Amino acid sequence: MRPNSPHNYPGTLGHKPIAVQFHAGSHYVALRLLEGYLPQEKIKLIHYGSPQQRFEAMWNGEVDACVVMEPWIALGEKLGCKALCEGHYLGAENASDDMDEATFAAITRAVGQAVDRLNADKRRYLHYLIDDPRYAAALVKYGGLTPDDFHLPRLRYAKATPYTDEIVADTYHWMVRWGLIDPTARADDLVDNRIAEAAVTLADD
């Protein structure tokens, strides 16, 4: 929210435009967060694409709110913006049908090592967020960021683990309820843990 926004509570966002990227993390997190405060028909999400586009739509007053991740959260807070609610989403590891288990295990092992390094000293790696070519010019435009501008507990990194059947089923039914997936699709046709389970086992060996 802009610093002068009249909104201080998610429940006042009924029928107000909120910038997200459709069928991506910002879209799903927005629905998860807002459905506890507003009925479905009052949630008005607008597709704005990239995090920068969503942030600038909010900052310029095109929308009342936006859903973004770091470093845009830190930038908004530095500029005096208000956060109404916050959530974390569970990412997915994707592999093509022809990827062999050894290759996927190597990728999983590399990601796991990166997670260990990040969690050991998050501040050490913040320059990657600040200097990332996708963000750097825009961040400078708004005054730039330093490592001290970040709230480190917000940055959470966890090693890949297979989804449980319960998580898959709950997520599937939630997506069907919101019309995000064809109800004729079967959950076990959409999520296959076999390679992930083998890769985690091999990565731990």
UniProtKB/TrEMBL annotation:
This is SsuA/THI5-like domain-containing protein.
